[in-house]
Design brief:
Elements: H1 5-25, H2 32-48, H3 53-62, H4 73-76, E1 79-86, E2 89-96
Antiparallel strand pairs: 1-2
Length: about 110
């Protein structure tokens, strides 16, 4: 089987996201690469599943909170720019501050 560079990138994101999901299931807080991998994978899947551009952006913004990541990671993930396959072709997503405030941050 021969894969294009885009397909190889997608498999790398998927593999990193699966590892991150396993660690998250153990109750571990995610590192920067793990958080980015989950965010990107969830957005890829939503786009591939037929979601609109706005719906995919909302998936990116609702997947993780500060409670899911190590201290400082939410600030490190300032913007995610990702090329996703939609029903009408490839489009670039731009999501600012995708990691939301967590319960621990509430007063």
């Amino acid at each position: 089987m021969r894969l294009t560079p885009t397909e190889l990138d997608r498999l790398t994101i998927f593999t990193a996201a699966e590892l991150a999901r396993r660690r998250r299931a153990k109750g571990w807080k995610l590192t920067h690469p793990e958080a980015v991998a989950i965010l990107c994978d969830e957005m890829h899947e939503a786009a591939r599943g037929g979601a609109t551009y706005e719906e995919v952006v909302n998936v990116g913004r609702s997947t993780l909170t500060e409670d899911d990541v190590l201290e400082g990671v939410a600030e490190l993930v300032g913007t995610i720019k990702l090329e996703c396959l939609f029903g009408d072709g490839m489009r670039v997503l731009h999501v600012e501050r995708p990691i939301g405030k967590g319960k621990e941050a509430a007063p």
